[in-house]
Amino acid sequence: QQQVKQSPQSLIVQKGGISIINCAYENTAFDYFPWYQQFPGKGPALLIAIRPDVSEKKEGRFTISFNKSAKQFSLHIMDSQPGDSATYFCAAREETGKLIFGQGTTLQVKP
Amino acid sequence: DAMVIQNPRYQVTQFGKPVTLSCSQTLNHNVMYWYQQKSSQAPKLLFHYYDKDFNNEADTPDNFQSRRPNTSFCFLDIRSPGLGDAAMYLCASGTGFKAEAFFGQGTRLTVV
Predict the structure, then answer these.
(1) Inter-chain CB proximity A32 and B98 less than 8 Å
(2) From the CA of B111, how many Å to the nearest CA of chain A?
(3) Residue B106, phi-psi category: left (phi > 0), alpha (psi -120 to 50), beta (remainder)
(4) Cβ neighbours around B13 below 10 Å, total
(5) How close does chain B come to A10, measured CA to CA in Å?
(6) How far apart are CA B73 and CA B104, in angstroms?
């Protein structure tokens, strides 16, 4: 059973556009929702994260929107740049600390 | 100034031949994790250590073992690699279960 569902699987955006990636979860006990960015051949790196008592968090061009009642959260990348081209994973943390990852979204930003 | 270092970056092993992947961290973190990431899939937790306490995920095959001889180092041993074990293996560390996990660059394992 997939506890964290991520969509879309792939995304193509023009430079300067907005990239939006969505995730949905089932377990209401998750207590932390990070997003990771992974470039080819590299390990994932934490991009931005949010706790469920906050509806939005913004860091530079990256924003997480969190809807606790709908059990959904999304990543918005404003003014998308070619350097943002990577695979993005949402994740949710169990009470034990274990991270459950979504399936990933491959983002391509075209110049 | 890499903080979590995995060696080697690429490993080719023969079907059935034991292989060991290594990870070191310079952060003095209590927790170390091993994840398996197959092509175009999400990372999947295999096991983790909190200090010397080993925690195996229920669905991790017995073929996968781990050792943590000290705080800085952690090893992943695959006793008899099969073709299905070809993947990127990611090591991560953190100060605790509730803390951010820092990932290494990964070791890409090929089984021939």
Answers:
(1) yes
(2) 18
(3) left
(4) 18
(5) 11
(6) 13
Query: Which region holds residue B74: left if phi is over 0, alpha if psi is between -120 and 50, else beta?
Result: beta
For chain B, 112 residues long, give each residue's pLDDT as a single digit of tens: 558 999 999 999 999 999 999 999 998 999 999 999 998 888 999 999 999 999 999 999 999 999 999 999 999 999 999 999 999 999 999 988 778 889 999 999 999 9
CA distances to A4, A46, A74, A103 from A91, rounded to whole Å, are 7, 10, 11, 9
Please write the tens of the pLDDT for every residue from A19-63: 999 999 998 889 999 999 999 888 899 999 999 999 999 999 999
Distance CA A35, CA A44 (A): 9
User: Which residues of A are less than 8 Å from B97 in CB distance?
Assistant: 96-98
A95 in helix, strand or coil?
coil
**Residues of chain B numbered 62-81 and touching chain A (CB < 8 Å):** none
Q: Is A46–B101 a contact, with Cβ atoms under 8 angstroms apart? A: yes
Does B42 contact chain A (CB < 8 Å)?
yes
